[in-house]
Specification:
The chain is of the alpha/beta class. It has nine helices and 14 strands. Its main location: cytoplasm.
Length: 297
Amino acid sequence: MRQIRLYIAAAKAQAEAIYAAIETVFEEDGYPVAIVELDEAAALFEVSVYIDEAQAAETRQRFAQAANVAAEALQTEVLPEIDWVKHSLAGLRPVRAGRFFVHGSHDRDKIESGDLAVEIDAGQAFGTGHHGTTAGCLEMVARVVESEKPHNALDLGTGSGVLAIAMAKLHPMPILASDIDPVATEVAVDNIRLNGVEQWVAAVTAIGFDHEEMQKRRPFDLIVANILALPLIELAPAMARQVAAGGSVILSGILDSQHDKVLAAYLAEGLQHQETLHREGWVTIHLKRQAGDVSIF
């Protein structure tokens, strides 16, 4: 079946808002989305979604609704036989977030002295470092890990494994990376090996916290969860029970407008708000459990 690209060009701020909106809408479908710069001087960007032709009509309506534009404003390109998941990611520039440098294999020559380089090539799992939520998480992870020096960590909803790999490179320690999608787990395993941190990071397929390996390793000094707001709210009671006294939780995948609801869910479980980072319309929240709180199981 032929693949097509639905796309729209817009000024930088509007394009970034459209990209954030459609990535959220199409995340569960697994449709690749991309944002690329067309004209640096004019600050003109193009936002695309890649799909099979059979999904064109439905996807056009959902894209237009999420982007708040008329369906007729979206342009269509019929694509040649290329792996467009890989192609769309290969066109992305490397990303710097704190000390971290997230890149594809084609950008290894851009690694600088002092970089904590994380190589993530095109795959079928969410989380390349280019999304505002992942970049925000990387910045927060650097702050928390460097200041708290945790002894063990959990990356819940690991996707490509980028956050778990970053933690291992910053501060080698036992890290469990989990995802509900077995394809994501396989991609994470490959990336863990590619980055040479398999000594520290193990990946498992698990729904929530229901996995034998999680039960063996808990409580965690640090839990990082870069998923979506609604699942984060639903997981609040269970997640609060997994973090050690004095430990930290880093939450992302949250729009600015969703910040207060997510935060309220975790405050209700006894966690204390430390800091919120705002990046490209998304937020990353850092919370802690009191050092003397032992009522976690």
